[in-house]
Amino acid sequence: MMMGSLKDEILPFTAMVMVEIAEVGMVTLSKAALTTGMSNSVFVVYYNSLGTFILFLYFLFQSHRSRRPLTFTLLCRFFLIGLLGIFLVQNLSLIGIKYSSPTLATAMGNLIPGFTFLLAVTFRMEKLARSRRSSQAKIIGTIVSITGAFIVTLYKGQPIVKVSSFNNSSFELPLLQKSNWVLGGLFFTFTCLSSATWSIVQAATLKEYPEKMTLVFFSCLFGTIQCAVFSLIAERNINAWILNSGIQVIATIYSAIFVTAFRSSIIAWCLQKKGPVYVALFKPLSTAIAVVMAMMFLGETPHLGGLIGAAIIALGFYTVMWGKAKEKDITAGNMCSLESSTEHTPLIQSN
């Protein structure tokens, strides 16, 4: 019993850490690809098409399993999940990265727990009692995290230390263009809101239709089709559809495997087991990973505003985590009291 409970905690935790590492790797590689002149809309279409093909092969391999029948309502849900999680999140995110940096992308990603928490409370997927310290901690932590994200966006500050990228790397990056920090932050804010809504809708759909891989495949398929239609309208230059460098090919293949296929599947599994707020709370971890990767591979210089904002975000994150842990203890205590009361009831009745 105890080993099973420990396994239920360790596996989702490890899976979400791997997801954040994979996602930061994609953000860093995509920044490198975009700086070589690759179109962000074309990039989204290419890696989602390849990723959806990988999911399709797995879907065919699992076709012998008996699945619940698909309805028109479910297909509409899958279309909406694809719109939120593939079309909006990925396109807006890549536009934001193009204007700013991977570090800002992951720092702003810390808004996702706050937005997800607010939406989960609104749709009664998360309990909230204002008189309890656990609920107060979650509210305060959410506000603090959002404040930290705005500091990262609006205040860049002085550079902390000058870092240069490795000269002996397998690919050379051109000089980074001057970032438009505020505009990039605005795109990331809409990205975070779309991502939080995507988690809520996906978690609610999985309760009604628990076939995770079916949901992941069809939502990725619909999202890829949406991106393709948009890109064909937005990108008229035929040369933009040609991959001109090694880093563009590497970024496309990496994103297809580790973002579209791996990340989507793992997140669906964790959403089903732990819920949307648990999944969203791992976003602050990506900030530290992104800073290290951006320094190592992009030669990005860390700034004071990012450091202060990240510290405030981390404080808010751990405040929310403390509130959730406290809430879990209260629930466990109530369950123990209920069991104890049930055990004594037969004795009272016999007396």
From TrEMBL:
It holds the Pfam family EamA. Residues 27-153, 184-321 form the EamA domain. The keyword Transmembrane applies. The chain crosses the membrane at residues 41-60, 72-92, 104-125, 137-155, 181-201, 213-234, 246-271, 278-298, 304-323. Keywords: Membrane, Transmembrane, Transmembrane helix. One of its GO terms (cellular component) is membrane. SUPFAM superfamilies: Multidrug resistance efflux transporter EmrE (SSF103481). It is found in: Membrane. It comes from the Eukaryota. Belongs to the drug/metabolite transporter (DMT) superfamily. Plant drug/metabolite exporter (P-DME) (TC 2.A.7.4) family. This is WAT1-related protein. It comes from Quillaja saponaria.
